[in-house]
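Appendix B. One record, verbatim.
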Amino acid sequence: MRAAALCLVILCAAPAVLAARQDDELKVPAEVRPFVEKGSKAIAVEAADLNGDGRGDFLLVLERENPAKDADDFPINQRPLLILVRGADGKLSEAKRNERVVMCSRCGGVFGDPFDSVTAKRNTFTVNFYGGSNWRWAYSYQFNYSRLDKTWQLVRAEETNYHTSDPDKMKTKVFIPPRDYGKIDIAAFDPENYKRKTKRRGRK
């Protein structure tokens, strides 16, 4: 029953999340707007002290209006994720970016856009996805700030799948370092190729 309830929550909440994400009235703080690159729009903005220095930072996800396409007509590097940190002078600057972590708008299969959300707290943030057709899947990737390496590194990846005809048989796998992968900087993270024993995900 717990798995079924979780599925119901996801299925009910996802359309609302998608509608909110497509809303052109996304509130982008004035100091973040200069980082919204020409030919793109902001689809997610989260505020938090991402590096634990006591100053407010931002996590920004953009969507390019005319991205390149692969042979199957799927957008390539459509949604860059930017980490904006505040310096001692109070100004924001781009500390890190990743062009691959946020799935494309067509990568969710029959379900549609798989981008669910980004959540951010002090020293950490998580990127979440949900999609599929009869077989549904969800992915989440958590990155924590390392004071030693002065960057954000993957600390947890979770993959869940189930068939809509039998949601109680939900299967979840969790991948953590150093068992499943070594240090992975957010800038170098590739969701298609990060485990020691790579298993490429197929679109459903």
